[in-house]
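ok, trying the design again with the full structure, not the truncated one.
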């Protein structure tokens, strides 16, 4: 009889990479098109403010200040948006080095404890976790993004926990950022890491897409789960690759 060979290939990663590449291309075009007119708009508003600020009645002065102030402020916002687009479009190549994740993440926690004294920013770092080869700047950027989101989710008071875990059998390191905020709905979970999706009234929604890109570039994975009884937990899992020498990790 005749036989058949059926080959099944998982192309999920390929499709994801193609989609990310397409978004990066769009981001580059938008950044280019928007950035060009921003500076002349801002300079013109400042020039109007200076030139017309002479002998005017109080109402006219207030209108001039409000109108030019709005233009200058909104252009600043657009510039930040464009910068975020540009960063997403040009993710720097990884610069791997031996990194003590506990030291790296403790620096992030200290930063937020100082800037948000009312919040509980807690940490629990595994003593088993060896130094691993990552790009410390990019991992720090990813975790800063997750902690920033967690801090926003819990409001003025609440709790954010940053943890590490060493999975010895699979030689993988986990970084977990948990919050006691309102949590994330199941439909939102599916779209969280897609560029431009954001549940925030303001913000570009590129933050988690950038985190996803950083983790993917490291050959890792990221997902979100419920933090029972309340809140969300973002989990980053990174392969250790070749283990860095434990004797002398490079300072972060």
């Amino acid at each position: 009889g005749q036989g058949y060979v059926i080959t099944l290939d998982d192309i999920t990663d390929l499709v994801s990479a193609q989609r990310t590449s397409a978004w990066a291309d769009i981001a580059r075009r938008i950044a280019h098109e928007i950035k060009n007119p921003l500076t002349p708009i801002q300079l013109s508003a400042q020039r109007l403010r200076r030139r017309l600020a002479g002998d005017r009645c109080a109402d006219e002065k207030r209108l001039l200040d409000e109108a030019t102030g709005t233009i200058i402020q909104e252009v600043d916002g657009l510039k930040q948006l464009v910068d975020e687009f540009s960063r997403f479009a040009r993710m720097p190549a990884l610069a791997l080095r031996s990194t003590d994740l506990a030291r790296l993440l403790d620096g992030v926690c200290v930063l937020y404890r100082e800037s948000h004294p009312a919040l509980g920013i807690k940490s629990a770092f595994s003593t088993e976790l060896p130094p691993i080869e990552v790009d410390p700047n990019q991992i720090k950027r990813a975790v800063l993004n997750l902690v920033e989101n967690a801090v926003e989710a819990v409001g003025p008071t609440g709790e954010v926990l940053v943890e590490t875990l060493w999975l010895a059998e699979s030689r993988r390191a986990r970084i977990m950022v948990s919050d006691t905020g309102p949590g994330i709905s199941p439909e939102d979970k599916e779209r969280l890491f897609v560029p431009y999706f954001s549940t925030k009234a303001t913000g570009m929604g590129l933050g988690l897409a950038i985190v996803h890109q950083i983790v993917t570039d490291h050959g890792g994975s990221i997902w979100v789960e419920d933090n029972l009884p309340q809140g969300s937990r973002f989990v980053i899992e990174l392969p250790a690759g070749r283990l860095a020498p434990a004797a002398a990790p490079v300072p972060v």
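Keeping the full-length input from now on. The mean pLDDT is 81.
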